[in-house]
Amino acid sequence: MRLYQLHAVQTLPISKTKAWDFLKNPKNLKEITPEHMGFRILSGSDKKMHPGQIIQYKVSPFPGISTKWVTEITHMEENSYFVDEQRFGPYALWHHKHFIEEVEGGVQMEDIIDYKLPLGILGQLMHPILVKKQLIKIFKYREQKLAELFGRIERMQSSLEIKSI
Questions:
Q1: Sign of CA dihedral 43, 76, 135, 14
Q2: Which of the listed residues 29, 55, 61, 109 has the most CB atoms within 10 Å of its CB?
Q3: pTM, two decimal places
Q4: What range defines the domain where residue 100 resides?
């Protein structure tokens, strides 16, 4: 089974505290997820983020396909980073690290996602056709929504890359 990695970086003109307050609230994920995905939180978003927290979602990654997605917050350092891992859902592996770092004029938000697809060779064949394109769309949408909400530091570029590792 092939392992893939998505790496996204975005710089916003906000304080580290403001960025953390937004990111640590699972309810805000709906706001930065494309509407066509039918994203809904089913449970687990009623408490302050903490290691061991289980959050259940319903999501439609592709038209006509709806799935339950269960993640666990496995690591967290207040105002710095957190890690969510899929416990049940559409991927064979999903390990998502979220980092926030102060930079000149704001914060840099970095996402590193290591993931594997199910279905062996069929999953690998579907990656460039469906999955990679969908993840790029989702993260480009997220970048746009965050820029609308908080502004953008013009001199700093955002980046998004998906590669096989």
A1: positive
A2: 109
A3: 0.92
A4: 3-164
Give the DSSP letter string of the chain: --EEEEEEEEEESS-HHHHHHHHT-GGGGGGGS-GGG--EEEES-SS---TT-EEEEEEEEETTEEEEEEEEEEEEETTTEEEEEEEESS-SEEEEEEEEEEETTEEEEEEEEEEE-SSHHHHHHHIIIIIHHHHHHHHHHHHHHHHHHH---TTS--EEEEEE-
Contact 137, 35 (CB under 8 A): no
From CA 159, how far away is CA 10, in angstroms rounded? Answer: 7
Intervals of the chain under pLDDT 70? 153-157
Q: Which of 3, 2, 14 is nearest to 100 (CA)?
A: 14
**CATH number, residue 10:** 3.30.530.20
